[in-house]
Amino acid sequence: MIRVSADFAKEVKKRLGGETITNCYQCGTCTSSCPVARVTNRFNPRKLIVQSLRGKRDDVLTGEMIWLCCSCFNCQERCPQRVEIADLIYALRNIAISEGNVPNIYSEFVSALYSEGKLVKVAGFTEKQRENFGLPPLKKPDVEAIRAILAETSFGEVLKVLEGKE
Amino acid sequence: MKVGVFISDCGGLVSKVLDIGDIEKYIRGIDGVKLVEVRDSFSSGEGLERIVRAFKERRIDRAVVTECSPKIAEIRILNRLKEEGVNPYLVEIVDLLGSCILPHRSWPDKAVEKAKVTLLAAVERAKLLEPIESRRFPIEKSALIIGGGLAGINAAIELIDTGFEVTLVEREPFIGGLAARMVRFFPTDDCALCVQAPIYELKGVTKTSRKGLYRSGVSELPGLNIYTNSRVVSVEGEPGNFTVTIEKKPRYVDETKCIGCGECTKVCPVEVPDLFNAKLKSRKAIYINAPNLYPPVYAIDETICKFKECAKCVEVCPTKAIDLDQKAETIKLRVGAIIVATGFEEFNPEVIKEYHYGEYPDVITQSELARMLDPFGPTGGIPIRPSTGEKAKKIVMIQCVGSRDRRYNRYCSGICCMIALKHADMIKKLDPESEVQICYIDIRTTGRMHEDYYERAREQGVIFVKGRPTEIVLNPDSGKPVVIVEDGLTGEILNLEADLVVLSTAFVPSSGSKELAEILGIEVAEDGFFKEYNSKLRPTETKIRGIYICGGATYPKDAPTTALHASSAALKAGKFLRSGEITKDLKVAVVNEELCGDCEFCPVVCPYGAITTVEKEGHVVARVSELRCEGCGICVGTCPKNAIELKHYTDDQILAQIRALATKLDPKEPVVLAICCAECGHCAIESSGIFLIEYPPNVRVMKVPCAGVLKVHHFLEAFNAGVDAIMVVGCKPEGCHYEYGSIKAAQKVAFTKTLLKALGIEPERIEMFQMVHIEGDRFAEAAKLMVERASSLGSIKEMIKI
Amino acid sequence: MKSYALFLGCTIPARQLNYEISARKALKALGIDLVDLDGMSCCAPPPIESVAVDASLAVSAYNICLAEEAGLDLLTICSGCFQSLARTNELLKRNSQLRKRVNQILSKIGKEFKGSIEVKHYLKVLHDEVGVEEVRRNVTKQLKNIKAAPFYGCHLLRPSELLKFDDPEKPRILDDLIEALGAKSIDYLDKLKCCGGLLRGYDDDLALELARDKVMKASKAGADCIVTVCPFCFINLDLGQIQIARKYNENYSLPIVHYPELLCLAMGVEAKELSPRSHRVKIDKLLEKMV
Ligand code: SF4
Ligand code: SF4
Ligand code: SF4
Ligand code: SF4
Question: What is the pLDDT of residue B214?
Fold first, then answer.
């Protein structure tokens, strides 16, 4: 039997970024705005929202849909109900990740930020090139400070989840 | 002072619980009480006559009456006393059953004590009651109607039929409003211009105006005076006696001479796009919007006319009707009532840039489509592509453009779905081969016969796409607009290429609504439409007596609803005007001009705009309009100088009652004073009695018209007199009968808390409660809470006098 | 000469020297002084927001704090950095509750978000502060023959309510700045649609498909190049074309250039000083057309 419930919407509403989910009246403006939805039917933001509103928690959190948004904010700009759709999708991703559903690329981002304080490492070769072109030497981020900050946020939990996975 | 106390046993209900003898004994001991009587009832028959006689024989000059249906009893007693020439405001009515018996059945002993103190307080108040004067205000038996659209015309005809003179002011050169542009009206597809003037009686002959506004004879109605090209620039005076200033812009054509031959237009050299006809054709500087509009005479557009430089029209006019020297006129008139019927207008969709209205010529609005569909209109009834002039064979409509959109207007405009369906139907009837596709979020067809249009549209093959388009783009190859929309039911994204895209825009308040509201002293709501006094039950009244609103001015409406609304406003205005005078008991605020000066707080807070300021001996002092004042007392509670007082609820009267209610017959029992407003607050307390919900008898109740009348020193005095805790009970802020009364009271309670803290007294001894009238259970709960609090805190040790 | 704290971000200094070099050169020439502050980290863009929104806010606020301490407005080159930082800045300025929450986190390292500075993208600085006229005056080599397709990308414009960069439906800034160089800024279908860059790494095929759509539409409109301002757009459209050629067997060879590269060229800087090898799609054709 299919169960329909507002529980998941309530849960999402409480998250940073998820507050506006219940504004949605399913007009589909987001979907026709969405560059991804225009090229593939694997993704449809309106459907993602309606699934959430109906309480299909597992489908939403373990499906691929939440990862297919390219954060272009087109939908958010045009939504007549001011649903913060892209932010809402971050919120859904946050929940998924905190429950261990982490696509590889995101684990890479997590460890890069944690170990380097930056997402991209500068190759030795590039440093040379920089010098050749007369660019100033790169200043280093304060990795310790970044780690201290991350530890105070839910990022800390994510790190634990990831460790557990390994 | 001789006070008579009349205790009704309410058919034995009181004596069943309370020892009336004991109470009577106590009352007799109160200073000033000269007469005590106990009977079954005092609100009718012999009981009531006994009160009357006691007054007339001068045995008493004030009275306290207890009755169990106090509202009805009050009306009966008041009316009877008035008949007999006794000023009814010398009587204080108490509801013993509701306040001392029903809610306290478990504590009969304590209930007796409460009854005693309640009566004591009533006597103390009664001693200070003053007669209230009644005054007659004459009313001018005529009305002004602002706005000559469907609503205004209907209201005018109704009022004239009822027997009043009406002046109708329309700011455009022609009456008819937005409705005149809409070709046909649902639900019966009548010609829009024909429905403009409804059925009315003229010299015993019933006329139905099926032949266009100009032939309906609306202009010939006796007592109707129409000013076109005119605006109301100021309104002064009082309900029943408004002085209205109207500015009439020159038309440059004498309405009485013009025969509508149109010779002038032929020679006029100035040509501009015709806005009335969606710029689909052009018009001259001297023009008429449509041949069947009223007045059927030409007008000159002064923004483009070359006047003396040209004057060609003057020469050709066979009746010499054109006068290029015409000047603006100012007209002053006195009316008793005003009806605002300014309607609504189309939202300008240009701001929704992704739809490119105003940029892509083939994207138009429904009213523009309506002009195309008018057989007498610029395209002869055929929808065309403005970019090329070709017939439009494929039409895509977009619903909710600017409606139901938090970025623009949150509300559903209510009629645009029907307009779209009506137009789809017309297009399909015209040419069944043409394609119509409607993109919608929800289709709303409430109203009789409205769903028929939806059914018919489906039968005719109109395609409904459930989705709100994200944008309209131009196909670079075909040059045609393409609507991009998700079909929510299939999940596909469609590119609907069309000859013509029609936006079903929102409808918004007519421009200038805010300014007009200011001139009239009434309000517009958040959505910009005029605000009703009560949107449920009094939808055509405003907070000012004598000023009414109707039709689209309060919210977009279809024709049948507008007609109903207009009749309602006309009826209300007629009721007000009918008697030629208003009689009013002056339970109003009175300014003490000695104390008042220069602060101007009260004019701002008065919800009825009853207070103005005048110069007096170099000071600005407040002046209350006796007619507008509704006696809430918010001004009193706001005045920092105690310079304004509410008759029948003066400071002395309020304080006397408070002090008496503080009386502790049993020193061990805490006393909680509940001061409630006469509206929701008091109703909530009453309803706890009615629903037999109990609360401790330690709570003693007193009523004021609105909690806004209360002042901080009332509270301090109450504590001083021995009250252990105070609860102020008012309406919910959003439902406050006097708009801000409850909010003001809450502010004062909050302020009192800080004062108490400073005095070393527990601030939680005073609380504000805001409730709806039926929340008896909430009141009982609050009462229990406060009594518990008072018990645990104990008495106030020492109150420092302020 | 106005000074700004430069926020370089992660990608540009590591992967797109052409962008960093040209931006630094151009801004300097137009009188904008850039200060490289110590300790600047990652802006915490969408990939980090996806992991933990609170962490993203805190890290991006941390960077803002560094600029606040230096008393300088923050200038970004990357649009992604602009969005993360400007958004955080605006959100925290507006929402005191959120600010409290973030400041509690920052207090652990002795920092506090004060809301005392602005975050700006250099395009806006060029347009509003330097001025289009001034840019035009500095052009020594009019790019008369060039038809350039401006590509704003997403994170410069949206969410407009917070970023307030330009009209999100009809932006002009980049168009104006392109025309200041004498080039023609052309209109093309879906100009404001996303290039799909952020899908790289999760679903490369999809990212490519979006890039292809973009390149196709710009080509069809007759563009000589697409002008970008974001490193992610650049990668997806530039490197993307090499992959498109492989996957779809379609060869667009449409040069992708960052605006400051174009600006530098118009101001007479030699192409070889601008790390032309950072481009995967050869720009020679474009350069030829300039003379
Ligand atoms: S555009 Fe907004 S309201 Fe419409 S379906 Fe998407 S999220 Fe819901
Ligand atoms: S933000 Fe995501 S869901 Fe919204 S339009 Fe862009 S890709 Fe689609
Ligand atoms: S009536 Fe229909 S088109 Fe108009 S706002 Fe309501 S739902 Fe939208
Ligand atoms: S009592 Fe109320 S209605 Fe009368 S003047 Fe004062 S505030 Fe206005």
Answer: 44
Q: Do A37 and B486 touch (CB under 8 A)?
A: yes
Domain C2-121 in CATH 1.20.1050.140? The answer is yes
Same domain membership, residue A119 and residue A39: no
Question: Would you call A109 helix, strand, or coil by DSSP?
Answer: helix
Kindly give the pairing relationship between strand B134-138 and strand B581-585: antiparallel
Q: Which residues pair with C226 in a beta bridge?
A: C149, C256
Contact B395, B383 (CB under 8 A): yes
pLDDT at B208: 46
> Minimal CA–CA distance to B438: which of B405, B400, B383?
B400
Ranges of residues in chain B with a pLDDT under 70 are 192-219, 798-802
Residue range of the domain that includes A35: 8-98
Q: Tokens in use for B589?
A: 């605020």
* Superfamily name and number for B142-248+337-342+510-577: FAD/NAD(P)-binding domain (3.50.50.60)
Contacts of B792 (CB under 8 A, 6+ apart): none
Q: Please state the atom number of ligand 2 nearest to the C-alpha of residue A73.
A: 1
Q: How far is CA B251 from CA A8, A84, B245, C83, in A?
A: 65, 52, 18, 56
Q: Do A146 and C62 touch (CB under 8 A)?
A: yes
| Range B649-802 has CATH code 3.40.50 | yes
Residues C263 and C181 sit within 8 Å (Cβ to Cβ): yes
Question: Which pLDDT value is given to residue B209?
Answer: 45
pLDDT reported for residue B372: 96
Residues in chain C, pLDDT under 70? 1
In DSSP notation, B145-196 reads: EE--SHHHHHHHHHHHHHT-EEEEE-SSSSB-TGGGGSSEETTTTEEHHHHT
- Which has the closest alpha carbon to B442: B424, B425, B470, B420? B420
pLDDT tens per residue across span B634-684: 999 999 999 999 999 999 999 999 999 999 988 889 999 999 999 999 999
Please give the class, per CATH, of domain C140-288.
Answer: alpha beta
Find all residues with CB under 8 Å of A61, minimum gap 6, and list them.
Answer: A92, A95, A96, A99, A101
User: Is the beta carbon of B504 within 6 A of some atom in ligand 3?
Assistant: yes
The ligand that comes nearest to the alpha carbon of residue B648 is: 4
Joined together, the tokens standing for residue C4 give 């700004």
Pair of tokens at residue B681: 């607050």
CA angle centred on B429, ends B428 and B433, rounded to 5°: 50
C-alpha span between B42 and A86 (Å, rounded): 71
Residues near B355 by beta carbon (within 8 Å), at least 6 away in sequence: B349, B363, B398, B401, B469, B471, B472, B501, B503
According to the model, what pLDDT value does residue A18 have? Answer: 97
Interface predicted TM-score of the whole assembly (ipTM), two decimals: 0.95
Would you give the distance in Å from CA B365 to the centre of its chain? 31
Element (H, E) at C4: strand C2-7
Cβ of residue B505 lying under 6 Å from some atom of ligand 3: no
What's the CA-to-centroid distance between B364 and ligand 2, angstroms? Answer: 29
pLDDT at residue C146, rounded to an integer: 96
The runs of H, that is alpha helices, within B220-304 are 263-267
Q: Which residue of C has its CA nearest to A92?
A: C50
Q: Same domain, yes or no, for A131 and A71?
A: no
Residue B559: count of CB within 10 angstroms of its CB: 23
Query: Which residue in C104, C93, C32 sits closest to C68, CA to CA?
Result: C93
pLDDT at A41 over 90: yes
Asked if A41 is an interface residue toward chain C (Cβ–Cβ < 8 A), one would say no
The pLDDT of residue B194: 59
Return the residue matching tokens 């201290």.
A148
Chain C, nearest residue to B482 by Cα: C189
A166 pLDDT more than 90: no
| CA contacts within 13 A on the Cβ side of B105 | 11
